[in-house]
Amino acid sequence: MFEFITDEEERGQVGIGTLIVFIAMVLVAAIAAGVLINTAGFLQSKSQETGQQSSKQVSDRVQEVATVGNVTDSGTIDIVNVTVTQAPGAGEIDIQNATVTWIGPSGTYQLTSTTQNYSSTDIQNASNVFSYSVVKDSDGSENVLNDADDRLNLVFDTSTFTNELNEGEEVTVKVNTMAGATTSIRFTVPESLGNKEAVEL
């Protein structure tokens, strides 16, 4: 009529229950560890990618070498040539993919690249553009600055987006590369342009 449970049976039941709980805890811990490992790997890759992008935004920029303006017969500057090279530590910079902001006395203009080897006939029907010409290029990469010795002229024909520059006027040119790095180039037109064909700005 009555069923007696011995101490050995009670200990066996408790042992099985403990084993089940232990296995469940191991499974939960394994799943949690897998999630943590995957999350850590994802965060590491994202942080590396973010670090690389941040580094490029700082280093992949151009550096001004010289800025020269062409003086017209009427005593104004109509064409500005800005010679640029890679900044120290910069990677490859494709000038055709760069955007330029011209901030001058007549306003602010967003410029995009047009043709290589500037000529007025190439851009006579264009607007809000700049051109470029190769000064020094050892490997034929043309529009790409990929060596510290490379030199490119950024050519700004003011007739395509603004007025000619007069004596004493100031301009800021911001060159933004595809990596997001920006270089600011500031220059001022000399107070006297008489009897000159070109002036350093």
TrEMBL record:
<comment type="similarity">
    <text>Belongs to the archaeal flagellin family.</text>
</comment>
<dbReference type="Pfam" id="PF01917">
    <property type="entry name" value="Flagellin_arch-type"/>
</dbReference>
<keyword id="KW-0969">Cilium</keyword>
<dbReference type="GO" id="GO:0097589">
    <property type="term" value="C:archaeal-type flagellum"/>
</dbReference>
<keyword id="KW-0966">Cell projection</keyword>
<dbReference type="GO" id="GO:0097588">
    <property type="term" value="P:archaeal or bacterial-type flagellum-dependent cell motility"/>
</dbReference>
<dbReference type="GO" id="GO:0005198">
    <property type="term" value="F:structural molecule activity"/>
</dbReference>
<keyword id="KW-0812">Transmembrane</keyword>
<feature type="transmembrane region" description="Helical">
    <location>
        <begin position="12"/>
        <end position="37"/>
    </location>
</feature>
<comment type="function">
    <text>Flagellin is the subunit protein which polymerizes to form the filaments of archaeal flagella.</text>
</comment>
<keyword id="KW-0282">Flagellum</keyword>
<dbReference type="InterPro" id="IPR002774">
    <property type="entry name" value="Flagellin_arc-type"/>
</dbReference>
<protein>
    <recommendedName>
        <fullName>Flagellin</fullName>
    </recommendedName>
</protein>
<keyword id="KW-0974">Archaeal flagellum</keyword>
<keyword id="KW-1133">Transmembrane helix</keyword>
<keyword id="KW-0472">Membrane</keyword>
<dbReference type="InterPro" id="IPR013373">
    <property type="entry name" value="Flagellin/pilin_N_arc"/>
</dbReference>
